[in-house]
Amino acid sequence: MRRASLALLAAALVLAAAAGAPLAHADIDPVRLTVTAPATARTGSTVAESVAVAADAGALDPHVGTLRVGVRLAPECGGSFATTSGPTVVDAVALTPQPAPGASYSATIRGTATVPSSATLTACAYLLDDEGRQFATDTDSAVVVSPTGAINPDGSSGGGGAGSGGAGGACTPSLARAAKTVRRGAKLKVAYRACAKGRYRFALLRIDGPKHGRGGGRHHDATIRATGNRTTKLTIGRLARGRYRLVMVLPSGKHVRATRSVRVLQAR
Q: Running DSSP on this structure, what letter comes out for residue 169?
């Protein structure tokens, strides 16, 4: 019964995604950053990344002074470029040219950084002005650094698995095992591999307790603009305590389930 109810709830999510249900994070931001980074890297190697900046007409007019892009690789992104620690890919480089008043804008910034140790690092990108105001961020792209430059099937660093996620270089979408426990009011970090651009849904589905089979859970929607290893976060909020299954719904409507359940605990 438990598996059947979970399957029914997952199917409902699939139908909602396939039918074009409203998504909370659809691509409607007037200013956008999109990081392109390699999915994997060998320890001690140099990683090259690019950051595409796009803005609707007039969206950048309120900036003060010079607009700059900063990117660092970090285990966890800080609230700003200055408070994020890790190898610097783009060191607050000024946009060239600067945006003209009232006009739309697009540009690409490129940079490199050496990754000294094995870890899963997030590319933390920020668009800021001289007063430190942030006009856009991107924290969705991840690089798995390992001694061999490969990743395991669950998305973790190590010697197993091909960086592309399949035989012969074919890409297989995957969802890494999330933390075993997370407390109410916190955020659950989710690592995954995206093989296609489009709308994704990440959901925690209740698999025990009184709400089992009745839609207990929480979801987060995102529009993915670059493929590869990436990360996102699910806000737990006031989600009821209990065990949940992490599910990723692909743009095609298919879903991928994590191999380990997540237990939501009482807030401290």
A: G
